[in-house]
Amino acid sequence: MTPDEYVEAVLELVDRIPAGRVMSYGAVADALAERSGRASARLVGAIMARHGGAAPWHRVVNASGGLPPRLAREARARWLAEGTPLRGTGVDMRSAGWWPGQGM
Fold first, then answer.
1. Are the beta carbons of 31 and 41 closer than 8 angstroms?
2. If you compute the radius of gyration of the chain from its CA atoms, what whole number of angstroms results?
3. Among 44, 54, 61, 92, fewest CB within 10 Å belongs to which?
4. What secondary structure does DSSP assign to 2-21, as a single string?
5. What is the pLDDT of residues 47-97, one digit of tens each?
6. Smallest Cα–Cα separation from 17: which of 103, 83, 91?
7. What is the pTM of this model?
8. CA-CA distances (angstroms) from residue 29 to 23, 41, 57, 73, 77?
């Protein structure tokens, strides 16, 4: 898989995350690892930062369920609108976590 194909695969997977559910950067990387030969949460984060503006970026969070402070306010509003289970200042990963192949 070329770097451009990997960017496309990341964005396609993020587009499939149902409203009210999330994946961590690492989970996105893990879900694509076998097909892509890559398994880097940091790379997924970089792709989301550069190319994810049109994707539901608020559905990809760090492993503890949060986003960088500069995005937290807008993300929280989107999470509330979608009914995403929250915990403290972030997402309740246990309740909101999603994996490809799970029900919508």
1. no
2. 13
3. 54
4. -HHHHHHHHHHHHHHSPTT-
5. 999 999 999 999 999 999 998 888 889 999 999 999 999 999 899 999 999
6. 103
7. 0.91
8. 10, 6, 15, 25, 26
